[in-house]
Design goal:
With 178 residues, the chain is of the alpha+beta class. The chain folds into 2 domains: 6-79, MutS, DNA mismatch repair protein, domain I; 86-173, Trna Endonuclease, Chain: A, domain 1 (3-Layer(aba) Sandwich). Helices cover 31% and strands 28% of the residues. The protein contains 5 helices and 11 strands. The chain has helices spanning 21-30, 45-53, 70-80, 84-96, 140-152, and strands at residues 6-11, 14-17, 34-35, 41-43, 57-60, 67-68, 100-103, 111-114, 127-133, 156-162, 168-173. The strands form 2 sheets. A 6-stranded mixed beta sheet has the order 3-4-2-1-5-6. The termini are far apart.
Length: 178
């Protein structure tokens, strides 16, 4: 049985769903976005792109007149972050693998990822994730800073390396005491 498609509006760099039981259920079961008191859900552009690609969400312009495609949303997101495609590839891959992935700005990382079966609020995230393109370079100083962020937040460091085809490989790094 196909799932109901949720309708939403693009508003100020985020996407707000209609007030509905389906939107509330999306938040409660899959931890997408943040729930508002009227049962609408505020989604990040990455979450909205993912749900549009999965045909679970239809996003309309703020006027409600024009439906925005996946490409339209990605274009809007690219204006905010030039590396959005790399970030989206990692976000999509982790979601497709059954993990919950949320932003981690307060931790100084791109994302935090919860172990399978764990929802935000039930336990802490297991990893902080930094997406990078395979042609990017990190200095030892940048790498050490990322590792320190993970260590200080008691999470594992995951570097998501995205190739030109959008495939992602992960490298987990940890401090080791000799």
């Amino acid at each position: 049985m196909p799932k109901d498609v949720i309708k939403a509006l693009f508003q100020d760099e985020q996407v707000v769903t209609e007030s509905s039981d389906t939107a509330k259920e999306l938040y409660e079961k899959s931890s997408f976005g943040s729930l508002k008191s009227n049962n609408s859900v505020v989604l990040s552009l990455l979450e909205a792109c993912y749900l549009v690609e999965k045909k679970r969400l239809e996003v309309f312009s703020s006027s409600g007149k024009k439906e925005l495609t996946f490409e339209d949303l990605l274009k809007k997101a690219k204006k905010l972050n030039k590396d959005i495609w790399v970030r989206y590839c990692v976000f999509r891959d982790i979601r497709n693998r059954g993990y919950i992935i949320k932003t981690a700005l307060k931790f100084g990382a791109d994302f935090r990822v919860y172990d399978r079966g764990i929802k935000p609020g039930e336990d802490h995230a297991k990893w902080v994730v930094f997406p990078v393109h395979e042609t990017s370079t990190l200095t030892w100083h940048e790498f050490a800073a990322k590792n320190r962020v993970a260590h200080s937040t008691k999470k594992r460091l995951l570097i998501g390396v995205v190739d030109d085809e959008g495939d992602v490989s992960y490298w987990e790094c940890r401090w080791v005491r000799p």
